[in-house]
Design brief:
The chain is of the alpha+beta class. The chain contains five helices and eight strands.
C-alpha cells in the first residue's frame, strides 16, 4: 500500500512538473555551480508571507547547489505555489504544498543526480523541503514543503519496489514561516483543476513567490543534519 502511494505521488509530481510535455532543453547558458557552505539560508517572499529555509549543503550538496542555482539566477522569482496535497491519515495538518518552474524553458536547468535520504540523513519531517521528480535523476526546479512527517517519502533500501528504495530528496527545513506554509495549505482548492490524482489538489488561486534570496546566517549554531524545525515552529491543527 505504501509503495503504491509513493508511485502515485511520484507520477503525480512528474505530470504536474511537465504539464504534459517532455523536459525542455534550456536555451540559456549554464549557470555555474554556486559557492556552497554547510548550511545555506534562503528567504522566500510570497504573497502570503515569508518562509525562511536552511538548506543542508554538507549532507545534500547536489540538491542544495541545484536549488541555489535557481535562487542566484532569480529563476524562482515570479513562480507560484500551485498545489496543496491534503492527506487524511495521521496527525493533522498532514500533506504538503508544491511550487516550481513546471518545465518552463525560460527557467529550467538540467536535471540533477538523486540524493536519497538514507545517504544524506535529511529526512522528510515536518517543515522539510523536498525535490519533485519522476524517476530518480529527473529533479529540476519543482519542490515541496511538508506540513507533517511523511516517512513514506524517505528512501527504504530494504524495499522491493524501486520507487520506495529511492524515495525523494529532502535537503533542508523551514526555520521560520511555518505559519505561512500552513496558510497556503489552508487556501481553497479548485474542484475541477488537475487531472487524475491531482484533481482536487490544485489551489484555486496560486500563491506567487515574489523572490527567493540567500540571507546571512545568524551568529548561532545552525540546525543539524536531519533535524526538523523546532516544535514551536510547526503549526498546530
Amino acid at each position: 500500500m505504501l509503495a503504491a502511494m509513493i508511485k502515485r505521488f511520484a507520477t503525480a509530481l512528474f505530470a504536474l512538473v511537465l504539464g504534459g510535455q517532455a523536459l525542455a532543453t534550456p536555451a540559456h547558458r549554464p549557470v555555474p555551480p554556486p559557492p556552497l557552505h554547510d548550511i545555506e539560508r534562503v528567504r522566500m517572499v510570497t504573497d502570503a508571507g515569508a518562509i525562511t529555509l536552511d538548506l543542508d549543503g554538507k549532507h545534500a550538496p547536489i540538491t542544495t547547489a541545484n536549488f541555489l542555482r535557481y535562487v542566484d539566477g532569480r529563476r524562482f522569482d515570479g513562480i507560484v505555489f500551485y498545489r496543496a496535497m491534503h492527506l487524511a491519515w495521521g496527525d493533522q495538518p498532514n500533506g504538503l504544498i508544491q511550487a516550481g518552474v513546471r518545465g518552463d524553458p525560460r527557467r529550467l536547468l538540467p536535471p540533477i543526480a538523486h540524493e536519497p535520504t538514507n545517504v544524506t540523513g535529511v529526512l522528510h519531517k515536518a517543515g522539510a523541503i523536498s525535490m519533485a521528480r519522476f524517476a530518480p535523476g529527473t529533479a529540476t526546479g519543482d519542490f515541496s514543503i511538508l506540513l507533517h512527517d511523511i516517512e513514506g517519502l524517505d528512501a527504504d533500501p530494504k524495499a522491493t519496489d524501486p520507487e520506495a528504495q529511492a524515495g525523494f530528496a529532502a535537503f533542508g527545513y523551514v526555520v521560520d514561516g511555518m505559519d505561512v506554509v500552513r496558510r497556503i495549505w489552508d487556501m481553497p482548492l479548485s474542484p475541477t483543476a488537475g487531472e487524475g490524482a491531482l484533481k482536487g489538489q490544485m489551489l484555486e488561486k496560486p500563491v506567487k513567490i515574489i523572490s527567493v534570496r540567500r540571507v546571512a546566517m545568524p551568529a548561532i549554531a545552525p540546525m543539524t543534519a536531519g533535524a526538523p524545525p523546532p516544535a514551536a515552529a510547526v503549526p498546530k491543527p
